[in-house]
Amino acid sequence: MGLLDFFKKEQREEEIFNSAMKARDYITAVKVGEKLLQKYPDSIYIINPYTEALIKTGQKEKAVEVLLYFAERKTAEEYYDVAIVILKKILKIDPYNLKALRLLISALQKKELFFGVFKTLEESYKRFKKYKISYCSH
Asked: Whole-angstrom Cα distance, residue 56 to residue 40?
């Protein structure tokens, strides 16, 4: 296989992935997206639709896991803006995810977005209080 064939194959996988997402063929999108994510683990352009496809196929926990792993890496790399967006997305999917909540608060603090910290804590407190969930892990 020549170099040109290699690039055609790479491009073809991305086209299949994008076509599957447009056609709402989420099963195909998950299969191809998994391969693409292994090749491009830092691509937000793959992670977002891939996790959407996971959710549509009933794999919400896996979607949260993928997003959380990505957000943790972005936080460690000090890309807080990207991490904050991803962490907020996680909390929309799973509003009681304490790990995402703690990481979001930490990222907001590092960006010195203290009002954001306050609002996040306030919203979480109300949510947890409504469902009588303890914020403190024992």
From this structure: 22
**Could you give the CA distance from residue 80 to residue 124 in angstroms, rounded to a whole number?**
20
Token readout for 55 is 């959710």
Torsional sign, CA 32, 88, 99, 137: negative
How far is residue 54's CA from residue 44's CA, in Å, rounded to a whole number? 15
pLDDT at 92 over 90: yes
Angle, vertex CA 70, rays to CA 123 and CA 61, nearest 5: 65
> Mean of the per-residue pLDDT values for the chain?
86
Place of tokens 């391969």: 35
Short-list 76, 78, 73, CA closest to 43? 73
Q: What global pTM score does this model have?
A: 0.77
Cα Rg of the chain, angstroms: 18
